[in-house]
Amino acid sequence: MKLEELRDGTAVITGAGSGIGEGLAREAVNLGMNVVLADISAERLEAVAADLRADGAHVLTVPTDVTVAADVDALADAAFAEFGAVTLLANNAGLESVGFTWDIPADEWRRVIDVNLTGVFHGIRSFVPRMGADPRPSHVVNTVSVGGVAITPKMTAYAASKHGVQALTESLYLECAEQFPQIRVSVFSPGQVATRIFEDVAVRPQSGSDTEFWRENIREGMSPVAAAKIYFDGVAQEEFWILTHPDSFDRLAAKRAQVLTGKLRPDALFDGRN
Ligand SMILES: NC(=O)c1ccc[n+]([C@@H]2O[C@H](COP(=O)([O-])OP(=O)(O)OC[C@H]3O[C@@H](n4cnc5c(N)ncnc54)[C@H](O)[C@@H]3O)[C@@H](O)[C@H]2O)c1
Q1: CA of 255 to the centre of ligand 1 (A)
Q2: Does the keyword Phosphoprotein apply (predicted)?
Q3: 94-104: pLDDT as tens digits
């Protein structure tokens, strides 16, 4: 498939009010797609939409909490009512949480798992049967993270949720191959992308040296629009693995494979952060 074939298609993007989701929205419009933007922050959503509409894009905004199944059903209803079909479902909304596992408040643990993992499940249950009823090719891309393959202490709710999305996405790929072969399923696994993810964290204010380390680290990351260009190239090429930083992904994945196949202890290859 060529990138130009996405023109006039419709992209539904969760977490579209900021960061990678906003970058995806801008790049989708740049490619000539209609966009349905979903975010829990109606204010951020409208700011992004106003900007895109000023450039002539056809934009629908649907304030959505991806943790609420009925919200995501309403998002699908709105998208299909407005555009008749969905070419790309970008399950992208996500949250961070930093600190020792035993210090994570129970509601923060639940929120991270609910947004990062259950939110993706809600997207699949609301959209995939309708996308599957359309014989034309379409795409489901779940935003995972290098945290979906690497082990990162003091980020356990996030890592557990992202390992879950990785597993869910691989299973979904196999299920769609069996039931809806016209739906291409991909993992988008970014390395560092400069977004507000460590500002807009889960439930309690996050502070301390680990949070500061990650905030600094992210600031030096790739721009969301550059990440979005990689994303859409991967979609057009029907890649399963869409990676912003393939070298660091390979390094972390190789370590993980070594730990598993060598039955090594978690600290055997650990060099500081992951
Ligand atoms: N930035 C990175 O370096 C990086 C690296 C790996 C993976 N990711 C993943 O990329 C995705 C996007 O994150 P980002 O870095 O752009 O962060 P971001 O904080 O800039 O954007 C996330 C957006 O998700 C929205 N959101 C939060 N909870 C929501 C909910 N319940 N329902 C709907 N929307 C909700 C937020 O309002 C925000 O606009 C996440 O899944 C994140 O885990 C980011």
Answers
A1: 26
A2: no
A3: 999 999 999 99
pLDDT at 237: 97
| 94 C-alpha to ligand 1 centroid (Å) | 4
Name the percent of the chain lying above pLDDT 70: 96
d(CA 253, CA 265): 16
Catalogue the active-site residues: 158
Rg (CA), the chain: 18
**Position 128: which residue type?**
V
Write down the CATH superfamily of domain 3-247: NAD(P)-binding Rossmann-like Domain (3.40.50.720)
The contacts found for 215-219 with CB under 8 angstroms, 24 or more apart, are 217/192, 218/192, 218/193, 218/194, 219/194
Compute the distance between CA of residue 126 and CA of residue 15 in angstroms, rounded to an integer. 16
- Beta-carbon contacts of residue 254 (< 8 Å; ≥ 6 apart): none
**Residue found under tokens 């993980």:** 256
Angle subtended at Cα 29 by Cα 16 and Cα 35, rounded to the nearest 5 degrees: 50
- The ligand 1 atom at the shortest distance from the C-alpha of residue 193 is 3
